[in-house]
Design a protein that fits this description.
The complex is a heterodimer of chains A (557) and B (167). With 557 residues, chain A is an alpha/beta fold. Chain A is built from 22 helices and 20 strands. In chain B, the strands form 2 sheets. In chain B, strands 5, 6, 7, 8 and 9 form a 5-stranded antiparallel beta sheet that branches. Chain B has a 4-stranded antiparallel beta sheet with strand order 2-3-1-4, with helices on one face. Classes of the chains: A alpha/beta (557), B alpha+beta (167).
Chain lengths: 557, 167
């Protein structure tokens, strides 16, 4: 006989968990007691939201299931933003929460909150355990559900008497089978053939590559498919890294802050091959004018994404990697699309991303300097806002999973704690967090976590003393009325120092490279406070509700 | 926009009903009727939901329902030949005299049965499609409908075709 808490920790180890991020409290005391002398590593964060983001960051960088742990009530509620962030970006996360004893459920007991109810719309599945005998099976199921099909967060709520209750070890099956959960991995052959026929006839084909390619580790197959068939690739924010930035077929990001040439290509293509992407409104702009001349092939593991926002001509439901493999087997040599590629080359030459050089310190320059310094030897995690878009635009990403960002939910406060998780997934390379002065203050307390555990995350704050992205909208669409978007100056180096973290303030372009070098020379975490041009904007930009070729801040056509 | 009758086979587990209804409310759907009960398979329940919506929206919600782990199978009965029934209980004011006789006559026409009699009221039980029940209730209004309770529509396909089966 074992306690539920012991079975829980053993089950986590059985699933291959090496690290969990958490925060203790009353009803999880039995679980924390098990962790005390367990080989399972636990990182104590300073706020539960950070535990969820750290586990998520770990998951995104490694492709494995991330795990976080919190107590009932306030602890569980603090996880919610992190769980929702994971849900929107389909990342594999298992969140474990303590709960009041089953006898008190529904009684408004101390620190009770209905966390399975609260997280119902933001989890792939969740469980409220009723007996210690269920712990092993449920943990196994939770990992299976979180990590397979279209991944997502799964929450397990464990009442205190379940942790302390005793149960026999149950023999678990080698493979989980759930009658109501059978993701389709293999694409329909007839559909793939139909798609290939269309590809064969297309004159101006375009691949629209999303985060599903990263999730399914399909970047080698995507590259092979694109090069063999000479089809240019534009990536979503989440798809960045699935094709190297300098690849001649790469058009960079599309959508609201996409490159002009990517958005032109979308508007002029006659065939769009959407792979692991979901036609989000930040990508499509006004949906009626998105890819108006194109037939659309859509490859996705989630049938609910097919036709959700846009009519699809050839849907292929399946795992992106498996489908692309079949595509490659069935594909005969394709046309070279010379005229089309020439046109794109012309756009690329005449509509490059702008990188201002005159005046003070420009964020684009900061990002490009870091990119040239670390090349493909770093993982970059962003916060949300202008800092995120400048990084997506100007950092040259070479590899999948080297770019970690909150796309679907756009969660300020994600980046820094996610960076903590990323470090544990990729200790072999430095982790840089690119933050805004607003975002970093949403989880700045995690400086305590990185300092205490000597987690060498390098924090680069693009400090414009504004909620910059919101200010940009106010400048452009609200007559420069900067309503509650100015942030008074904060000395981030001093804050870092107070936690025992080294840092540097950077005010001129000359100081940028030495600062990044100093951050790499430092063994531990490091804070860089870049005082950038305060009213720098992210361009080009598709105003809300416009067609994606109607960009402002680009080059004259 | 037309009514769709969805038949949903689910694992009979705590919370499954709120998972299902939550999907509808989050998408701004109003559920017209809902009926739940055990079914031919032990451990399973069948939920029948009637919603009004355009075909594409209903198709999207069916796909989302299919993604729920505890849901085994979702089918839209509206696409097929089917039998749909609802049961209603109607408590109607019926004083001694002509009105009472009239109500009993109406009941016969609708093949409703009188399941409770008291000096001042009658309770009618009627089974049929939604329209029939609506029509009866409307007719009875002139006498005074004190309470009107209905089970919500349930449906089954005609012939040997099944709404259940693997997902
Ligand atoms: C939690 C949360 N609250 C509000 C927003 C809305 N929002 C999007 S970007 C942004 C400003 C971000 O400011 P900062 O971190 O300084 O980044 P900058 O845009 O200045 O680079 C805000 C408030 C959000 N995305 N997330
Ligand atoms: Mg800012």
């Amino acid at each position: 006989m074992k306690t539920g808490a012991k079975i829980l920790v053993e089950s986590l180890l059985r699933e291959g968990t090496e690290i969990i991020f958490g925060y203790p409290g009353g009803v999880v005391l039995p679980i924390y007691d098990e962790l005390y002398d367990s080989p399972l590593r636990h990182i104590l964060v300073r706020h539960e939201q950070a535990a969820a983001h750290a586990a998520d960051g770990y998951a995104r960088a490694s492709g494995r299931v991330g795990v976080c742990l919190a107590t009932s009530g306030p602890g569980a509620c603090n996880l919610v933003t992190g769980i929702a962030t994971s849900y929107m970006d389909s990342t594999p996360l298992v969140a474990i929460t303590g709960q009041v004893p089953t006898s008190l459920l529904g009684n408004d007991a101390f620190q009770e909150s209905d966390i399975t109810g609260i997280t119902l719309p933001v989890t792939k599945h969740n469980y409220l355990l009723k007996s210690a005998g269920d712990v092993g099976r449920v943990v196994q199921e939770a990992f299976y559900i979180a990590g397979t099909g279209r991944p997502g967060p799964v929450l397990i709520d464990i009442p205190k008497d379940v942790s302390t209750g005793m149960a026999e070890d149950v023999k678990l099956p080698d493979k989980v089978t759930l009658r109501g959960y059978n993701p389709t991995y293999k694409g329909h052959k007839r559909q793939i053939e139909k798609a290939l026929e269309m590809i064969g006839h297309a004159e101006r084909p375009l691949i629209y590559a999303g985060g599903g390619i990263i999730t399914s580790n399909a970047s080698p197959e995507l590259m092979e498919f694109a090069t063999l068939s000479s089809i240019p690739v534009t990536t979503t924010l989440m798809g960045i890294g699935c094709i190297p930035c300098h690849h001649p077929l790469n058009l960079g990001m599309l959508g609201m802050h996409g490159t002009e040439y990517a958005n032109f290509a979308v508007t002029e293509c006659d065939l769009m091959i959407a792979i692991g992407a979901r036609f989000d409104d930040r990508v499509t702009g006004r949906i009626e004018t998105f890819a108006p001349h194109a037939k659309i092939i859509h490859i996705d593991i989630d049938p609910a994404e097919i036709g959700k926002n846009k009519r699809i001509d050839v849907p292929i439901v399946g795992d992106v990697k498996a489908v692309l493999k079949d595509v490659l087997t069935l594909m005969k040599k394709q046309g070279a699309h010379e005229v089309w590629l020439k046109k794109i080359k012309h756009w690329k030459q005449h509509h490059p991303l702008k990188c201002p050089t005159t005046g003070g310190l420009h964020p684009q320059f900061v990002i490009r300097t870091l990119s040239e310094l670390v090349k493909d030897k770093a993982v970059i995690v962003s916060e949300v806002g202008q800092n995120q878009m400048w990084t997506a635009q100007h950092f040259c990403f070479h590899n999948p999973r080297s770019w970690i960002t909150s796309g679907g939910l756009g969660t300020m406060g994600f980046g820094f704690p996610a960076g903590i998780g990323v470090h544990f997934a990729r200790p072999d390379v430095p982790t840089f967090v690119i933050a805004g002065d607003g975002s970093i203050q949403m989880n700045i307390q995690e400086m305590g976590t990185v300092a205490a555990n000597k987690i060498p995350v390098k924090i680069a704050i693009l400090n414009n003393m504004y909620l910059g992205m919101v200010r940009q909208w106010q400048e452009l669409f609200f007559d420069r009325r900067y309503s509650f978007t100015e942030l008074p100056a904060v000395d981030f180096v001093k804050i870092g120092n107070a936690y025992g973290i080294e840092g540097m303030r950077i005010e001129t372009p000359e100081e940028v490279l030495p600062a990044f070098q100093a951050s790499l020379d430092c063994d531990g975490p490091f804070v860089m406070d870049f005082r950038i041009e305060r009213e720098e904007n992210v361009f080009p930009m598709v105003p809300a509700g416009a067609a994606i070729n109607e960009m402002i801040g680009g080059h004259p056509r | 926009m037309k009514p769709h009758t969805l038949s949903i086979l689910v694992e009979n587990k705590a919370g499954v009903l709120s998972r299902v209804t939550g999907l509808f409310s989050r998408r701004g759907f109003n559920i017209e009727s809902l009926a739940v009960g055990p079914c031919e398979e032990p451990g399973m329940s069948r939920i029948t939901i009637v919603v009004i919506g355009d075909d594409a929206k209903v198709e999207q919600i069916m796909k989302q329902l299919n993604k729920l782990i505890d849901i085994i199978k979702v089918s839209d009965l509206t696409e097929n030949e089917r039998v749909e029934r609802e049961l209603a209980l109607i408590k109607v004011t019926a004083e001694q005299g002509t009105s009472r006789a009239e109500i009993m006559q109406i009941a016969t026409i609708f093949r409703a049965s009188i399941v409770d009699v008291s000096p001042k009221s009658l309770v009618l039980q009627v089974i049929g499609e939604t329209d029939k029940i609506d029509a009866l209730e409307k007719l009875l209004r002139q006498y005074g409908v004190k309470e009107f309770v209905r089970t919500g529509t349930i449906g089954i396909l005609r012939g040997s075709k099944l709404a259940s089966g693997g997902k």
